[in-house]
Amino acid sequence: MIGKLKGLIDSYGEDFVLLDVGGVGYQVHCSARTLQHLPSPGEAAVLSIETYVREDQIKLFGFRTDQEREWFRLLQTVQGVGAKVALAVLGTLAPSDLANAIALRDKAAVARTPGVGPKVAERIVTELKDKAPAFANVDPAVVHLAGAVDDQRAPRPVADAISALVNLGYGQPQAAAAIASASRSAGENAETAQLIRLGLKELAK
User: What pTM was estimated for this model as a whole?
Assistant: First the structure.
């Protein structure tokens, strides 16, 4: 099983790169994001590889980092997500951004992927929500709050304050982060209006 390839870029295709390793050309399928970051033909490159062996073909998928490859595997554990969709998601969102989006239940960010509709985005966020926080670089309190809002467990003033900020045009993750900070400083018994006011101050910083 091939796990890594180091060689020279021979040429590029629409969704793959031909990597010359000791005179052997390996066709490696990559996300658009990975292809954009690879060097020009003739230059050296290293790719983490995921090898798919089928009855009628062997297919190689290449990634700039082991973490990206791990997300490729994780995404395919979700019902309805195959290799093509997983690559498309990783072409739209960097691994850290994908982790943050899932941790914050930001279905809209995942749904920006071409070919990924709201239902598939919902499944990705729901089924991977327990795995994403380990990769995410957001405040655990914000992750907890986003989950509580999504599951309708958040206190009413908090949920209403987040909803108000979203209605003002802020994204759900931004609003959740601002209100999480506001509720920390205002205390558990804060009213909606106070949370909104403090949340807007946070967003203005």
Answer: 0.68
